[in-house]
Amino acid sequence: MTTTISNSILKASIKHAGAELFSIKDNQNNEYIWEGNPDFWGKHSPVLFPIVGTLKNNTYTIHGKEYHLPRHGFARDMDFELIEKTENKAVFSLKSSEETLRKYPFEFELQLIYTINESSLELEYKVINNGSEKMPFSIGAHPAIALPDQFENYAFLFEKEENLKYYLLENDLISSKTKTLETKNNLVPLNYELFKNDALIFKTLESKSLTILNNTKPYLKVTYNDFPSLGIWTKENAPFICIEPWLGYSDTDENSGDLYKKEGILILDENKDFSTKFSITIL
């Protein structure tokens, strides 16, 4: 099942499976979300919950008991319920169940709220702790932006001039090795060589927006004021780029496994909720 929301400028379509955005089209029928060709990557814009990235040995502990979670958690692979719909807004809900409690022993509700305002699509994540103890979690986005022209024709424009230090992955875990992305006037030309060691992981950034330019012309902007961390990723020769606002990231090799003590983890008090949002603007 799918749901579509729209205004006079944009139309966005969301699968109920994973509450996954799979299309943003403008009123000229231009598509801005990656088509999901499995030859490169079979997804479009999955939600990452209740972890972002990879756990050491795909394992963590709560009060000394071991649990297992795959990379980026389980929400992206589960069916959400559509609980509210208007012309330009849709709200999807995933609630804890026997299946989730075996992997993640917390009573929760995760809502994904999609709203179109003018030429922007806003994605809000709402996490509700329905349990009687503090709930550790991470949440992140993974939208793949379609790049229909030659990959090297595109460039990133970071909002602020800063030292763009990123961490390298080793065996899907964050290593202590870092590199710095070279910029000129806050610009980074795109090339596949940047991603030969997988994603670029920025634990902290001063820039809270990233604009994609196509031959110096503004194409699309991702704004992520609420997110301290960012992943950027593509696959070799793939015609897309993922701009991934994160609250949390992969384990390091030194991780103890205790989810409450994981670097970058959020702790939500019992019977409380947490909201965060980012937006994709067509330029």
Automatic annotation (TrEMBL):
Keyword Chaperone belongs to the record: no
Cofactors, names only: Ca(2+)
Keyword terms: Calcium
Gene3D superfamilies hit by this protein: 2.70.98.10
InterPro entries from the UniProt entry: Aldose_1/G6P_1-epimerase (IPR008183), Gal_mutarotase_sf_dom (IPR011013), GH-type_carb-bd (IPR014718), LacX (IPR037481)
A Pfam family hit: Aldose_epim
Self-association and partners: Monomer.
Record's protein name: Aldose 1-epimerase family protein
Natural source organism: Flavobacterium tagetis
